[in-house]
Amino acid sequence: MRLVRAIWKLLVGVKDMLVLLLLLLFFGGIYAALSIKPPAVRDGVLDLALNGSLVEQPSKPSATALLSGQGGRIREYSLREMVQALDAARTDDRVKAVALDLDGFLGGGQAAVGELGAAVGRVKAAGKPVLAYATGYTDDGYQLASHASEIWLNPLGTVAITGPGSQNLYYKGLLDKLGVTANVYRVGTYKSAVEPFIRNDMSPEAKAAAQSLGDVLLANWRDDVTKARPQAKVDAYLKDQPGAVAAAGGDLALAARNAGLVDQVGDRRLFERKLASIGGEDGKARGGYRTIRLDSYVRATVDRNPRGPIGIVTIAGMIVDGKAPLGTAGGDSIANAIRKGIADKGLKALVVRIDSPGGSVTAGERIRQALLAAKERKLPIVVSMGSVAASGGYWVTTPADYIYAEPSTITGSIGVFGILPSFQGTLQKLGVGADGIRTTPLSGEPDLFHGPSPEAGQLIQAGVDSIYRRFLAIVGAARHKGPADVDKIAQGRVWDGGTAHQIGLVDGFGNMDAAVAKAAELAKLGDERGVRYLERPGTLRDGLMDIFSGDDEDGAGTTDAFAALAPSPASQLQRALAEVQQIMSGPSIQARCLECGPVAATPQADGAKPGLMAMIARLLWS
Q1: Residue (of 494, 479, 303) closest to 393 by Cα position
Q2: How far apart are CA 298 and CA 282, in angstroms?
């Protein structure tokens, strides 16, 4: 027994030592991370290496992913921080030039890219060189690069402009083979998000609406590019890119230069030599030239916690019930931030920045009510639409005194729908039966084994109809139109910002600066333009995640000129499976316009099976 006790004490001691060692390593790592200071800003070239996507509100890294060492997280860059950094660089004598490294740029929506491009143009107008480089330019990347003073292209690269347009997957045939029935409840001729589950192709109405939107977005892209770079022969290149390549002897890079799309064809080594000649040489720095790191410059020039009198509320991503981290529009999180903000007597106006395709109608209404509470306190409210403000994203605009959009903003989609899968055909194919008892016509509803009963179906459809009528009513009240007039421009149809202005869904064109100026005007603040951000406060966990995720500006972006043009089969399959999962994972309704681009499905909280009325309340999304 003594030997056993001795071995046990030894094992306990080893365990305690390992735990102590791990704790020392953990806290030592935190101390080391907190002690690291970003490199000081010195004279040189501001390195805008955008290895990720441009967003309104970056999401926080997942603790699970960081601790497990999983890679592949796409970095997100804040649009407002990038714009503010470029505006600071315009008059900063330390910044000799700006390098736009777009090899890893994944875009961010036409309106957002256009706003960042305008900031690039202001730097160029101030007399500072802005040089862009990439192995391959596609639509968003070239739109941004066109504002530079000099565009470089790798000799192995190309400018491949595809324009708006994509192929959507339709699952009606697959669901029939699986025996799954998609029970659809909707209002609106153009609410095309349900079509993948009830058709094998686009309806003529949906195709016509999507074609109209795509044509306008391409025209807006062309206008932005040609104004920024008049020498580019955009029309001829768009009309016959293969012909331009053939005329250049099959050399894709030469074809782009002949069309005036790029100024220099050269590898990265030559590009870095050019930067060194402008900003100064530094043999120890990556690239051999004096570099101003983007993260260091943002920290030095961007005030992330201003205290001006104009509150900025950001509604970005899917609108979901409850609380949500930054990058997702949690109804409770945003409403609470608004409530706390308006309690401060120093707040004089609100600007609501929206980049969202919609989501939960209950969460959207929660946000709307919070904005109405601000309005009751006589605070002017101005909405600034980003790339997308559709469906539920438009719902939350209705308390506004004035709405700004960009011509390329995707908005509208005023409609409601729901999808409820049932598996009676699947059970029959498997030889599985389902039976039980009822005490009322709604007992056990919605019945996913036999399909919802007529009574349950009528109740769900009535809920959808009721939400749609309310949608029409609040839009009508906000836009001074009758419900019948709103219905003519609603029906789930998606509009571009230009058309939305013509039909009265928005008041004018402008970016965030215009919205802030309008809010100041309505609040009678004179020349005051100071803002504050009404957001969920950061937590210690958020800070630690930011530290350990780091700012990897040295990470390599894509070097395959055709990577963005031809997505990998794995990514396409992943998207398809995600679409199928949305209907197979049980009751859920989303207001997701296909024209707004893919939006990741929001995981739902675990819990007991809700009753019918609770389920209907959760299912109604707009």
Answers
A1: 494
A2: 22
Pairing assessment for the beta strands 494-496 and 410-412 based on DSSP bridges: antiparallel
CA distances from 236 to 149, 179, 190, 243, 249 (A): 22, 50, 34, 10, 17
Average pLDDT (302-318) is 93
Helix (H) or strand (E) holding 387: strand 381-390
Contacts of 376 (CB under 8 A, 6+ apart): none
Angle (CA) 620 621 622, round 5°: 130
List all residues 6 or more positions away from 97 whose beta carbon is below 8 Å from its beta carbon.
45, 46, 128, 129, 130, 131, 275, 278, 279
Beta bridge partners of 99: 47, 131
Query: Nearest 5 degrees, angle CA 71-CA 75-CA 76?
Result: 150
Where does the pLDDT of residue 575 fall: very low under 50, low under 70, confident under 90, or very high at 90 and above? Answer: low
161-204 residue pLDDT tens: 999 887 788 889 988 999 999 888 888 777 777 888 889 998 89
- Quick one: which of 260, 249, 194 has its CA closest to 226? 260
Task: Copy the structure tokens of residue 454.
Answer: 């007529």
Region 580-590 average pLDDT? 47
Other beta carbons less than 10 A from residue 359's beta carbon? 31
Distance, in Å, from the CA atom of 14 to the CA atom of 139, rounded to the nearest integer, reads 59
CA angle 213, 217, 218 (to 5 degrees): 120
Question: pLDDT by residue (tens digit) across 48-71?
Answer: 999 999 999 998 765 555 554 544
Place of tokens 């100071």: 530
SS3 per-residue string spanning 168-201: CCCCHHHHHHHCCEEEEEEECCCCHHHHHHHCCC
Task: List, as one string, the DSSP characters of 40-70.
Answer: PP-SEEEEEE--EEEESSPPPPPHHHHHHT-
Q: Is the peptide bond before 446 cis (omega within 30 degrees of 0)?
A: yes
Q: Which residues have a catalytic role annotated?
A: 191, 391
Higher pLDDT, 28 or 431: 431
pLDDT, residue 441, reads 85
Ranking 28-42, 276-290, 409-423 by mean pLDDT, the lowest is: 28-42
Per-range mean pLDDT, top range of 14-28, 141-155, 322-336 = 141-155
Q: CA angle, 132 as apex, 131 and 137 as ends, to 5°?
A: 160
Round to whole Å and give the CA distance between 363 and 509. 27
Q: How far apart are CA 389 and CA 395, in angstroms?
A: 9
Query: How far is it, in rounded angstroms, from Cα 604 to Cα 360?
Result: 12
Q: Using CA atoms, how far apart are residues 354 and 420, in angstroms rounded to an integer? A: 29
